[in-house]
């Protein structure tokens, strides 16, 4: 959350790509609550199952939402939706780990989608700022990477150099997409690019059963999959509501510039599970101890985890410097236990996790 409410300029519409997504849902909600007109390009504007929750939020808010048909991979597809918009939030990008064709399922949507959206911004005279939802994955691949740098802590000055199409292709996709964004931004002078680099996003969704990988992780913690224990898999986490505030600050603070690591806590998978135990352990088989690293290494491939990743991430602390987000975006971060409990409660309500 920001230290003080961000003043949203409502005299121009604002575009949010991927509006039906997990992170974008909260951005759209905050914009509508502030009275903005939100342009939401989606694959099928008539699909009530996909857009109904956003329409309902708009009904209860002073702002207005308008849906447009668009395809992330089709050049020129965002022209109608972007017309007249002052700020563009580009959040649309897949977050999934288990893929059969990384190039088609991760790299192309991330890179081509970013290119299509930002090149459209070059053609729309009203656009003066683009906010890109990148990721800490564009800065590092494994927790060990965050220690193998000067100061033993990643900063916005660093780029991911260890991911590839063969190893951790999701991280590779985020790296390539952000680099393309900076290339396009630096080749023009009319609009400013501001980048948000979140760690793993947690917290309640505005929609039921979103597709973000975060929900698969929490489901496995609560449905008995991890009842024998959870690995101390090191990473950072940030609440989705705090992340939405960071986006608004990046979009509307006059001096916002560059990249921002947006991460509330340095943690691991076991610590996330333990945060849920006080409220939910009597009803759900949450893990309470750490799985030994040798065991995780042994069975990792069966669970979809590369052994190299296990070696470089399990029992390795994650370190990320979030001071720029606090200083430049005015961020403060809510307690991780609050984020975890709110997320788990919403997943139970939505039938994502059964007792």
From TrEMBL:
Entry GO MF terms: oxidoreductase activity, acting on the CH-OH group of donors, NAD or NADP as acceptor
Protein's UniProt keywords contain Oxidoreductase: yes
Signal peptide: none
Pfam families: Epimerase (PF01370)
Keywords: Oxidoreductase
Gene3D superfamilies given in the database record: NAD(P)-binding Rossmann-like Domain
Span of domain NAD-dependent epimerase/dehydratase: 14-252
Coiled-coil region: none
Matches recorded under InterPro entries: Epimerase_deHydtase, NAD(P)-bd_dom_sf, NAD(P)_dehydrat-like
Keyword Oxidoreductase: yes
Name of the protein: Dihydroflavonol-4-reductase
Natural source organism: Shimia abyssi
